[in-house]
Amino acid sequence: MLAGARATVPVVVATAQEKSVPIQLRAIGTVQPTESVTVRSRVGGTLTKIHFKEGQDVREGDLLFTIDARPMQAELRQAEANLARSTGELENAQREAQRYEELVRKGFVAQSQYEQIRTRARSLEATVRATAPSCRTRGFRRATRRFARRCAAARAPSRCTKAVSSRRTTPRSS
Questions:
Q1: Domain check: are 61 and 112 in the same one?
Q2: Is the pTM here over 0.90, yes or no?
Q3: Which residues, including other chains, have CB under 8 Å from residue 62's CB and lie 6 or more apart?
Q4: Tens digits of residue pLDDT in 113-125
Q5: pLDDT in tens, 97-106
Q6: Do 125 and 95 share a structural domain?
C-alpha cells in the first residue's frame, strides 16, 4: 500500500428480518421469588399427587396437590354409623319409656324407675340431635362424599398468579 493511501473496507449487504432472539445471561447468583405464598391445607393427610411442575405458572383455583381422602371418608362412615346406632338406641328407649309410662300409671313399677328410662330417652334424643343436624337431609351422603373430595384437593389461593415451587413436598404412594 502506498503511503497516505487509504485501505478499502468490504461491505456486506443482507435483507433485514424480524425474529425472536433468545436473551441469555450467564451469571453466578441466587434466584429469589418476587412473591411468595404459603399454601396450608385445612385438613391433614398424606400427599398422593403434585399437579404442577417446578416453576410452572398457576392461577387462582388451580389444583396443586391431592391429599389422600380415605381417612376423611372413613371418619364420615364412622360418623354415619354412630348416628345410626344412636338413632336405633333412641327408638328403643322411646318405646321402653312408653311401656313404662303405662306400667307406672297402673302401679306396677316405681316412679323413679320410669324417670330413669325417660331420662335415658331424652339423653339419646339430645345426642342424635347434636350428632347430625344435617344427616337427616336427603343429600347427606352425596354432600359428605363431595366434602371429602374437596378437602383432599389443595388449590392455589387467590393471590397466586406466579410460578410455583414444590420444595419440601413429596407425595407418598399408598
A1: no
A2: no
A3: 51, 52, 155, 156, 160
A4: 999 999 999 999 9
A5: 999 999 999 9
A6: yes
